[in-house]
Design brief:
- The protein is an alpha/beta fold.
- It has 13 helices and 22 strands.
């Protein structure tokens, strides 16, 4: 029998688990949240992968590296010259660590304020909605609840011929903590993690080679947006090789020796550090006792219905461990929805309007369908585009690259997808998500007054362009 009884237990304190726990507590439920992540100081660090070694620290490094890059590449055009700029990596990495600690501590304070009980250890679901907690010292305790929410997250996929050693061959966490700028950095995978962290170290001076096995760059994004982004990354100095399949990675005295194949046959490359960023998998290792009845799919994800219920009474699952995009905000909204369903309220997550963002330079963002998807589905559509080169604010910022592309239904004008690459698009996409959530049309956005001069005018003009009435470009 359990030592303590709760209304709901969340296993995992990442963006899905901790947000769901707080919302459940707001609804008057007695809540526990279990997590085993250990910070650099050896203490429990709430927030999961996203906060500790993912979303937040990577954005801190992206911003710091952008500041350094701007000194040499963007400030001179403003008439500002800085001589002898250099990077102190101890401070560079230390700033990132300070931000992480600030926010992990902040979650702890939110737990206290909302009376969420935090447990430090690895949680395992037992039959009958009991949860066994194994602390780092091996000691165990069992707690129980009417409802258990599995929010165990995901972990990097490891290649059998390029196993992580934490020094020469690293995952995303390792690439956040290099003690010096590598002269030659190899990146396996031209996805979000590979492009973001590759950009960080390229801006600081590393020679970065990205090997991507797929023939298409950013296949999940709109093809036009991906093409523009590829061109800008090439300008930055990222050497992105498409259709390059790695087969061997061997650590030697002079670096990591890579063997890969492309359209021209077998190739070789030597790098000082290798970041393997080929994707992530649901983390369910040791999460479930054999008799819980919870099922996993062929990809190791927890099987759930449209309400994130596992089919086992009182057991739910959310975030990276279930179907759908592995995005922090998707997991958070599922956490809120499940908390509300448990409390007898109407939870809601609309998968059709979840925004995607890549925080590179330039940023990439999109929501809804791509043009390719609409063609495949036989949906009639019309297209509007507008370049940031014609936006006064973007030109004044010296960031006049990229465009906004809007797709609307050819008959109803309902917005079906919006795709962007350019300055600040991680923020601009929100306006489009709101319009799509309320089933808005391109005409709606076209008739809304946008402040001048702002970057958001690119959205306004793209909406006008859908019906060939953009003002500041030819139609």
């Amino acid at each position: 029998m359990s030592d303590q009884k709760f209304d709901v237990i969340f296993i995992g304190a990442g963006p899905a688990g901790y947000v769901g726990a707080i919302r459940a507590a707001q609804l008057g439920l007695k809540v526990a949240c279990i997590d085993a992540f250990t910070g650099k100081d050896g203490k429990q660090a709430l927030g999961g992968t996203c906060l500790n070694v993912g979303c937040i620290p990577s954005k801190a490094l992206l911003d710091s590296s952008k500041q350094f890059y701007n000194i040499a590449h963007n400030l001179p055009v403003h008439g500002i010259t800085v001589d002898g700029a250099k990077v102190d990596l101890t401070t560079f990495i230390g700033r990132k660590d300070k931000i992480v600690k600030q926010f992990t501590g902040g979650i702890g304070q939110l737990f206290k304020a909302n009376k969420v009980t935090a447990f430090y250890g690895k949680g395992k679901l037992l039959k009958g909605n009991q949860v066994e907690i194994t602390a780092n010292d091996g000691s165990k305790q069992t707690i129980g609840a009417t409802n258990v929410v599995l929010a165990s997250g995901s972990v990097p996929i490891e290649l059998p011929f390029a196993k992580f050693d934490g020094k020469h061959i690293v995952d995303n966490a390792g690439a956040l903590d290099f003690t010096e700028v590598p002269k030659r950095l190899g990146v396996i995978g031209a996805g979000v993690i590979g492009l973001e962290l590759g950009s960080v170290w390229r801006r600081l001076g590393a020679e970065v080679t990205v090997l991507e096995a797929m023939p298409e760059f950013l296949g999940a994004a709109d093809a036009d947006i991906a093409k523009i982004a590829f061109k800008e990354f090439t300008k930055l100095g990222l050497d992105i090789k498409m259709g390059a399949k790695l087969s061997k990675a061997e650590v030697k005295k002079d670096g990591v020796h890579l063997v890969y194949a492309d359209k021209d046959g077998e190739q070789s490359l030597v790098v000082d550090k290798l970041l393997v960023a080929v994707g992530r998998r649901a983390y369910t290792d040791g999460l479930l006792a054999d008799d819980t009845g919870v099922k996993l799919d062929e990809r190791g994800r927890i099987v759930v219905d449209e309400h994130n219920h596992t089919g086992v009474d009182g057991v739910w699952a959310i975030g990276d461990a279930v179907r759908g995009p592995m995005l922090a905000h998707k997991g958070s909204e599922e956490g809120v929805a499940v908390a509300e369903w448990i409390a007898g309220k109407a939870g809601h997550v609309n998968f059709d309007t979840i925004p995607w963002v890549i925080y590179t330079e330039p940023e990439i963002a999109w929501a809804g369908k791509t043009e390719k998807q609409l063609k495949e589905e036989g949906v009639p559509y019309k297209v509007g585009t507008f370049p940031f080169a014609a936006i006064g604010r973007a030109v004044a910022m010296n960031e006049a690259f990229g465009q906004v592309k809007m797709l609307a239904h050819a008959e109803t004008d309902r917005i079906l997808g919006v795709h962007m690459v350019g300055p600040g698009v991680s923020e601009l996409i929100a306006e489009c998500v709101v319009a799509m959530e309320f089933k808005g049309s391109s005409e709606d956005l076209a008739r809304i007054v946008h402040a001048h001069p702002t970057l958001s005018e690119a959205v306004h003009e793209a909406a006008l362009s859908v019906d060939k009435r953009a003002i500041h470009k030819g139609n």
